[in-house]
Structure formats: structure tokens, C-alpha cells
Amino acid sequence: MDFLKRIFAGGVILFFLQGGILFCQGKKDFYRDVLLTIMATSKLLKISPSLLTGLIIQESFFNPYGLNIRFYLWKDYLKFKKYFRVNKKCSFLKKKIICTVLPEDKRKLIKILRFVKSRKKIDYDIGLMQINRKKLKDYGISPEEAISPEINILLGGLILKKCMEKYRTVEKALICYNRGENADISSYKSIFSIKIIAYDEYFKDLFKNFQ
Description:
Blueprint: H1 2-8, E1 13-17, E2 20-23, H2 28-45, H3 49-60, E3 67-71, H4 74-83, E4 87-92, E5 97-102, H5 106-117, E6 122-126, E7 131-132, H6 133-138, H7 149-167, H8 170-179, H9 191-208
């Protein structure tokens, strides 16, 4: 427990890194529970806790309400923009609009989920590990249930475990996690995986103290 006290002292500092500090906005109980869930998932699935932590940082920066939405019809995007005044950042591509949406709270997130669930031409990823709607369906988990950090981390761990069993290397497993199990990743290079592997290296020594 001394390890936890050091990490969450004052509810401000989450992790000490080599050459930097990651801040956590004073939500020490939330981050403590997330850390314990990471450790439990790591033990259950035999996946490095530092790798899971890096994946969460890359996917959501520890925001359980983060939502990545892909609109394939302009009318859906325009309706969303009209109905929901939320913090969002959108990229306009040729065939789709991608928006990173950060609702203020769970209540607003659930309202947004009701909207996106009702549109067949909208795809989305949700929660700490940004689980895709198709994966939620595959595992029989509702989007509302996937908001839970415990469920989200376990589900993300299961998906990563499956990718690791298929590809046998961390880099390819992370690309598989990001692009999907059926994607052709044989010659694909990913900044996504490079960043997470770097986070994994940063956190390894820290988690050794927690064993």
C-alpha cells in the first residue's frame, strides 16, 4: 500500500516517469481503482500491466467517457452537431467524419450512445480502452456496460490477448488491436504500437515495485 500512497499522494500525481510526470486531476479514488483493475486483468490474462497501462493512455488518457465516432453520412453528423453540444474534435475525410467526443459526465454520454446506436452508418469506440461497437456485440456487452472501467479494461485485455495469441509479437498484436483481427497487417507499420511500446518500457520498473 505504500506504493499506492506514493502514486496517489495528494490525488495529483498518477505516475512518476523517467523525464516527465503524468497528472490525474485529483481523482485519486478513480485512478486507484483503475490501477487495481489493471493489475487484476494482468494477472488473469497474463498480460504485462505496463502494456495495458500504455494502451489505456494511448486510447483514452484515462477518460472512461471518451468516445470516438465515425460518421459515414453527412446527415448523421449534422444531426449530432445539432443535438449535442459537447467538447469534440473532428477530422473531415473523403468518406467519413471522425470525431473524438468528450462528454462532461456519464449521463450525457448515455444520451449520445442512444443516438449513435440508432444509426446503422455510425461506428464508434468507447471507454478507457476504446472498445469498438462490433466487439461489444461479439462479447455480448452493451455500450452502457462498457462505460464501466472494470468491464472495459477486461474486455480490452481479452481482445489484446487474442491478438497476441494470433501474432505472437507485441507490435503486431497492438496493430491488430487497433485495426481489427481480420485486417491485413503483414506489412503495416504503426505509430500507435510504437507509442504504446514506449509507454510499456516507461512503466515496467514502476509495476515491479507493485508485485
